[in-house]
Amino acid sequence: MPAIRLANLTLGYDRHPAVHHLSGEIAQGSLTAIVGPNGAGKSTLLKGIAGALSPLDGGLTLSKGKRLAYLPQSADLDRSFPIHVYDLVAMGLWGQAGIFGRIGLGSKGKVEAAIAAVGLTGFERRPIGALSGGQMQRALFARLLLQDADIILLDEPFTAIDARTTADLLALVQRWHGENRTVVAVLHDIETVRRAFPQTLLLARETVAWGETARVLTPENLLKARRMVEAFDSHAPACEREAA
Amino acid sequence: MREAEEDEPMLYDLLIGPFAEFDFMRRALVGIMALSVSGAPIGVFLMLRRMSLTGDAMAHAILPGAAIGYLVAGFSLPAMTLGGLAAGFAVALAAGAVARLTVMKEDASLAAFYLISLALGVTIVSLRGSAVDLFHVLFGNVLALDNDVLVLLASVATLSLLTLAALYRPLVMECVDPGFLRSVSRSGGVVHLTFLALVVLNLVAGFHALGTLLAVGLMMLPAAAARFWTADITRLILLATAFGMVSGYAGLVVSYSAGSNLPAGPAIILAAGALYLGSLLLGSQGGLARRLLPAAHLQR
């Protein structure tokens, strides 16, 4: 049973498709990178899987009863809001606590453990506005930890983050993989993908290649992906192609 | 010793006497306290959601509704309250819809609606009433609160605080990280609309005491002043409420001492304004003095 199944999926904005005719499966417990040139539709695809964008066409099925967590690229997070790191991380408990549920002593331990796991111990009482970019990303990963999701979607999680933080957060991703969670991450650093991600989807508005990373990230495929996006004409007539 | 004996009765006359002696002063104080308790926390959220001007616009938007109530029934509390609520909700929803459906941004469409509302309201009141009535509608009459108005103010305060308590968690989340709330819950839209309803409700309540032009002042000024003292949402709410109460009390005392020259409503807002300016200058969180005075390196 795959965690995520795409069937001829087309996603876009204002009825203009950004990615089209995607078909394939993301296996339960797999660790998949989505790579491709700028404008390839990587973030759009992730948004679609997260349910933040309705498909224009085709189908998207998630395996039933699975919890999903989504970390968007530039979270529309208000960093000037007067709230502490602890409270930001504790938001991850929403799935268990909801609007009225008590966040009791046991949960307090969980929040502290999550903060420790991302190396932010001692920062609990800092206002979020005082965090650096890397520390902020650590806090958001701590929140993801608390969400305890079966499917975790990360959009460019290591962009503009220092090497040390990237290594630490990558270790968390590996830990999730080891716990048989399904992780899908949009990445642009090919070396990181080669090193840490067994599966890769190379995207250029449609699938260029999808499968084992070593077979997907060949020079020919990468070149092809770049050409496909460059050739894309935004004034082109609407897609006439039949479903594959 | 002698001085102290003289001081005490003077201070008493100044600070407590007016309220001990006059029923209307006690009523005004109770009304303003009720307004502060619910208005200030709502002001804090308006400020943090960058909706301060929205609050201002909605305060004006209430006017034509209240004016129609006045036209129909004179100075009738239920008529003007219902009219104000209807107009407030209508403008809040209309501005949101215009922003979603057209190229107009929400702030511009709110400005358009509130200018129309203000002109319309003033026209409607002038159709029937005198200049005194118009002054009353625009600036309120905090020294003439009757039992019915006090019950309304207290009910609105109670309802607002209970609702805020119930919605606190998603409301804070919606302010900090709306995308995250959307990804874990569908409550975001409901929370936003309920919050807007609370804003309108409190503005209508404030309208009876302070008038349409000043109602929003007791909401926004204490919140903005408190922001200069703390970077913690809980303390911010408590401090804003305290600032609101202090402004209300100080405004009433000053206005009483000044005789009939200084109307109480504007005096209250001026007191809140003074607190804001003082905080702006001296506040420990980004106040001007801290910015401008040289501090030792890395010292906070």
Key attributes of the depicted protein:
heterodimer; A: 244 residues; alpha/beta; six-stranded mixed β-sheet; three-stranded antiparallel β-sheet; 9 helices; 25% strand; B: 300 residues; mainly alpha; ABC transporter involved in vitamin B12 uptake, BtuC; 14 helices
Overview of the structural elements:
The complex is a heterodimer of chains A (244) and B (300). Helix content of chain A is 35%, strand content 25%. Chain A is an alpha/beta fold. In chain A, helix 4 (105-117) crosses helix 5 and helix 5 (133-147) runs parallel beside helix 6 (163-178). Chain A is globular. With 300 residues, chain B is an all-alpha fold. Chain B is 81% helix and 0% strand. Chain B has helices spanning 2-15, 17-21, 23-48, 52-73, 77-101, 106-128, 131-139, 147-176, 178-184, 188-210, 217-226, 233-257, 264-282, 288-292. In chain B, helix 8 (147-176) crosses helix 9. Chains A and B meet through strand 5 and helix 3 of A and helix 8 and helix 9 of B.
Number of helices of chain A: 9
The end-to-end distance of chain A, rounded to whole angstroms, is: 22 Å
- Rg from Cα of chain B: 20 Å
Sheet with most strands of chain B: none
Helix/strand structural class of chain B: mainly alpha
Strand content of chain A: 15-25%
* CATH level 4 superfamily of chain B: ABC transporter involved in vitamin B12 uptake, BtuC
Q: Which pair of chains forms the biggest interface, and how many residues does each contribute?
A: A-B, 29 and 25 residues
What would you say the CATH architecture of chain B is?
A: Orthogonal Bundle
Supply the number of structural domains of chain B: 1
Which topology of chain B does CATH recognise? ABC transporter involved in vitamin B12 uptake, BtuC
Oligomerization:
heterodimer
Which structural class do the helices and strands of chain A define? alpha/beta
What is the H/E string of chain B? HHHHHHHHHHHHHH
Number of helices of chain B: 14
Distance between the termini of chain B: 43 Å
Helix content of chain B: over 70%
Number of strands of chain B: 0
Main sheet record of chain A: 6 strands, mixed
